[in-house]
Amino acid sequence: MRSIEHWIGGASVAGSEYTTVYQPATGEPQAQVAVGGRSEVDRAVAAAVTAHRSWGEMSLSRRTKVLFRMRDLVERHEGDLARLITAEHGKTVEDARGEVIRGREVVEYACGIPELLKGAYSDQVSTGVDSYSLRAPLGVCAGITPFNFPVMVPMWMHPISIACGNTFVLKPSERDPSASNLVAQLYADAGLPDGVFNVVHGGKAAVDALLDHPDIAAVSFVGSTPIARYVHERAASSGKRVQALGGAKNHAVVLPDADLSDAARQITSAAYGSAGQRCMAISAVVAVGSAGDELIELLDREVAAIVVGPGDQDASQMGPLVTGEARERVITAVDEAERAGATVVVDGRGLRVDGHEGGYFVGPCLLDRVTPGMSAYQQEVFGPVLVVLRADTLDEAIDIINANPYGNGTALFTANGASARRFVRGVTVGMIGVNVPLPVPMAYHSFGGWKASLFGDTHIHGPEGVSFNTRGKVVTSRWPAQAETSPSDLRFPTAT
Ligand code: NAD
Cα(180) to centroid of ligand 1, in Å? Predict the structure, then answer.
């Protein structure tokens, strides 16, 4: 079986232990991935510390030269990266291409690092005194990432971190690890010096070793809320800077004045793309007033027509879930909602894909008349399940969203600007769409949720990513033209 090894100091490093990587479309083992622990992390951090001595001193123009080459290589290998994602994650190849493009856009943003790191200069802040501020790199940074975007989410982190002059250790998801090794190879081909970008595979043992390592300055995490909370607490308690992005329950509110056909199409794409395994997937609809019945009819038509199949077949619109456990979780959530009184409008629980009976497939599920007390609403199901709640007014819909513990993304469908404005100002959510169902910010804005969807102060990539990956310095300087003769003055200095 193919082995997926660690990448440390510019070379492949064999693991001492391995775990199996499955093919979600068949349920068959397809590779084994190394499982690292403290010794692999120590080795990777040592390589990153050594590399930082020269990379942190590298001129902006030499750093950006590598990033421009990397940008081209990611574009050239878009198909290779997408096929690796599909084989291990299960999403369709076209969907996987989308995540590679969105990841590449962060590399493009990082190519502009000379502009982003430009400090500020104040001439003559006091007589004969000037002051300037700059952003310095942190040292070694770590990234710990989830299975659902094996290329894009790590790219939210490492291009900016590296562009800022840091070196990086990535611990990707053990479910779909191969793409990270190809990214490491592309960095090497782009001319990135050995040890600047390292990959340690594995699970909790590798994560804990990163969180505790005294030579790691900052940790970026993306994954589920319980692990995000844990990572935030443990990394912060060892003095690290940390941003930990967690799970989500993203609501789409549909007002009666919206174009309901358009809303149904947009919501269907956002709920079932990648089989609902996106942190920005719409998983709950709040239908306001008279919108409800017609919207359900339109959604029923759209959802029932979704073609489910292996991600590498052109006809497939939706692939399998990532694991058999994920499939069971989805089926249990729908069973429980049905028992609690929800109406199952589209039922994907019994779906079988011919020739792929062992695959982790479940068809799209649409549930109506769900209430906030039901577990299908309270949990992050993270599968192709869309629940519809009913509300009488926009304010009631906003209250439902704000009572939810998550605050990653949300969307409003309306034809009324005043309603949109009230919604945007009223919801306690980090990323908001107006007639846009998946409001994932472009690379030059920052990405982040509120409440249980993000622990830490900064959002990821964009300008906040640059702040997270650097530390400020302010220099106040004075160059007297001739020896000064004035006596010592012990008063607190003020500008003169
Ligand atoms: P996960 O939390 O299980 O795993 C994320 C990472 O943490 C992986 O690298 C994994 O190896 C590691 N990990 C798992 N258990 C651990 C433990 N006990 N101790 C230390 N490390 C551990 O998440 P997942 O299932 O891979 O990904 C899906 C989740 O990620 C969903 O909740 C989704 O909403 C979330 N997500 C959030 C965002 C966002 O931007 N907020 C983006 C993508 C995914």
Answer: 16
Same domain, 20 and 78: yes
How many whole angstroms separate alpha carbon 99 and alpha carbon 193? 26
Q: Which domain holds residue 318?
A: 250-434
**Backbone dihedral angles phi then psi of residue 47, each to the nearest 5 degrees:** -65, -40
Question: In terms of residues, how long is the chain?
Answer: 496
Tens digits of residue pLDDT in 221-262: 999 999 999 999 999 999 999 999 999 999 999 999 999 999
* 16 assigned to some structural domain: yes
* Residue 174 vs residues 35, 45, 276, 347, 377: alpha-carbon distances, Å: 8, 19, 20, 31, 28
Residues 361, 227 share a domain? no
Q: For residue 393, how many other CB atoms are within 10 A of its CB?
A: 11
Q: Is the C-beta atom of 243 inside 6 A of ligand 1? A: no
What is the 278 CA–ligand 1 centroid distance (Å)?
A: 12
User: Tell me, what DSSP letter sits at residue 113?
Assistant: H
148: Cβ below 6 Å to ligand 1? Answer: yes
Q: Is residue 275 part of a domain?
A: yes
Q: Is 141 a catalytic residue?
A: no
Question: Is the minimum distance from the CB of 469 to ligand 1 under 6 angstroms?
Answer: no
Give residue-wise pLDDT tens across range 124-153: 999 999 999 999 999 999 999 999 999 999
Instruction: Indicate if 78 and 185 belong to the same structural domain.
Output: yes
Does residue 334 line the site of ligand 1, with CB under 6 A?
no
pTM summary value: 0.98
Which of 111, 164, 279, 365 is the catalytic position? 279
Same domain, yes or no: 123 and 7: yes
What tokens does 22 get?
């499955």
